[in-house]
Amino acid sequence: MKSVVLTGIREMKLIDVPAPVIENPNEVLIRMKAVGVCGSDVHYYTTGRIGSQVVEYPFPVGHEGAGIVEKVGRDVVRVKPGDRIAIEPAMPCYHCDQCQSGRFNTCRNLKFLGCPGQAPGCLSEYIVMPETSCYMVADNLSYDEAAISEPLTIGVYAVESSKIRKPQKVGILGYGPIGMSVHLAAKAAGITEIFVSEKIPERIQIAEKTGATLAWNPLQQDLIKSMNKALPEGLDVIFECCGQQDALRAAFELLKPGGMIMIIGIPEFDTWEIPVDLGRRKEITIIHIRRQNESLQQTLDGISSGLYDVSQMPTHHFPLAETQTAFDLVSDYRDGVMKAIITFG
Questions:
Q1: What is the side-by-side strand order in the sheet with 214-216?
Q2: Is 2-137+313-343's fold the same as 154-288's?
């Protein structure tokens, strides 16, 4: 089969490799139909690492996937050949203390698609996954929507974890796919005042189409002055979705006393700098979001029912042979890209 692998910094190759086979009775062979290019994939592409997770070349990345079930192991009951599925990239052990307490996203023995040292990614024509990672896709969903359910579920989980509620006011710093996912989830939760900061003009336009109260470009406007003018009392919750130090610093300025920062963005550096005086005087709460936890089914149901409209998210499509072109587009933020999707024939 064909597979795309990282071979160096900003280097990829389309290669022929043996097709995977089912080795365990609970496994499913999947023919891939769509894979979204995620910011974390791009980190591996441009730097070769995320924190302690370092790529050993060659390595296939990719974890936002959807496909068709080709074969199933003898113990599989969740899906059957021919089923259309979305893929949950996380494979917890279900036995450690974290899993036993319901924290599957912080499993001590977690394996995750496209994560170095854990599991190869899904930028291949076929992959094998445990049946627990296979979720049926409703007939009215496209493969794009099925793949997009993976980043969207992070926004759903983040919003639920923040416990925001009307009439609280929300800020989103960074309006890429994760920022948009937070926006959609916050709207679905009944939040009507959502303020966005984003540097790419086309993404600002998407934020406005999606219903942002106000959207600013911090390269063109002073974010703090503009926000303080629009909302002098400050925001209740801010979602940091871009992994940038200046965004985190701005969050402390923009929050009202007792406010909360939800950190979702993945920075390329190892240490955040936090303004102690502002954080202490305002009594700011900081919560980190680690992917998502058991939210994929409700996310798929929400897309199917129209609760989450993801139609503005996929902006570019590429065949598997042009994966590197897609990664270059996303890593360089060119052509107003929001979400690039790799498609399979």
A1: 214-216, 193-197, 169-173, 235-240, 255-263, 285-288
A2: no
Half-sphere exposure of 3 (CA within 13 A, CB side): 21
pLDDT score, position 345: 82
Which residues have a Cβ under 8 Å from the Cβ of 76 and sit 6 or more positions away? 25, 26, 27, 28, 131
To the question of pTM greater than 0.85 for the whole model, the response is yes
Q: At what angle do helices 223-230 and 245-254 cross, to 10 degrees?
A: 30
| CATH T-level fold of 154-288 | Rossmann fold (3.40.50)
Classified as helix, coil or strand, 94 is: coil
Does residue 78 surpass a pLDDT of 90? Answer: yes
Give the dihedral of Cα atoms 180, 32, 293, 252; nearest 10 deg: -30
Percent of the chain at pLDDT above 90? 99
Looking at domain 2-137+313-343, its CATH architecture is Alpha-Beta Complex (3.90)
Give domain limits for the chain.
2-137+313-343, 154-288
Residue 19 DSSP class: P
Contact 332, 10 (CB under 8 A): no
Quote the DSSP letter at residue 105: G
| pLDDT for residue 234 is more than 90 | yes
Of 28, 14, 26, nearest in space to 126 by CA: 28
The whole-angstrom separation of Cα 7 and Cα 125 is 18
- For the cut 90, the answer to whether the pLDDT of residue 83 exceeds it is yes
pLDDT tens, residue by residue, 297-331:
999 999 999 999 999 999 999 999 999 999 999 99
Helix (H) or strand (E) holding 303: helix 296-305
